[in-house]
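Project standup — Tuesday

K.O.: blocked on the structure for the chain from last sprint. Re-posting the sequence here as requested.
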Amino acid sequence: MTDLIKIAVDAMGGDNSPNKIIDGIILNHNQNKNIFYRIFGDEKIISKLIGNKIKNDFYEIVHTIDVVKSTDSPLEGAKRGKNTSMWLAIESVKKKEADIVLSAGNTGALLVISKLNLKMIESIDKPALSALWPNKKGMSVVLDLGANIECSSKNLLDFSIMGASLFTSLYQGEKPNVGLLNIGSEEIKGHETIKETYQILNDRKSINFNFSGYVEGNHLMDGNVNVIVSDGFTGNVALKTAEGTANFITSELKKAMTGSIIGKISSLLNISNLNKFKKRLDPRLYNGAIFLGLDHPVVKSHGGTDYIGFSNSLDVCHRIVKGNLIEKIKQNI
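H.V.: unblocked you, prediction finished:
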């Protein structure tokens, strides 16, 4: 079992934990027998939830009853001490007892505790929060999604390199197209930092990615650019707007299809296409944000997701480790 990828899992973070965490682990294990789960949390509860659904060879429980609360500020979460499930999970990666850490807990606390325990990759100044978004042609990596409100051109350059490295780790064999999120596609548009970054990326001929210039918000889903780079403020606004739009479309379509007899008949006739549409917008399929820039990978599952979403974030962890993300970033930076 020594060749198994080891994932340190904070079992106590997020809504309905540890129930959904363990259900997600069980689902993931049924689909992938190449993972060993180091589970941090209340052993009595976790053991009962696992039962005999996973062989002992594939997991271990590290007992703790201390938890970072969702209502904690980042500093309060860190001050809860070194025995919280989140801290211990991150520490296990630092000690090389696991390859990657996953938590559905408090995002701010996860970032602070990660930075306290783990080093930054050499020459990278700030970590970035990255996630996967669907587009017309497949998937895009988007960063930063809120870790850094203000960024320099050096930071945005680093984000471009890290985002491209993440994309090639997850989708091996594909060379990504990198674009800067901006208010227009012309070179003269945008503030000085983004224009400076444009010039740097345009002059820097990278063998690891293609630079596609600026991308506007209404073209994020086109698929022509599959690594989208911005500062954390802009990226977070774009993320929340995309999530809200997807929820609006789904709910309005559901109303239209169930609000009248004609709508119900139409929905029955188009049930296959509607299910495909629903699945395409299902946020659980894209669950798992990644902190990039640290010398060990840290993944954040959405706190409100269910066990299916959490299982998908475990799959992201597996692909990150298999794709040698950290080594790719170090080589490309």
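K.O.: great, moving the ticket to review. The chain has two domains: 1-124+293-333, 130-283. The mean pLDDT is 88.
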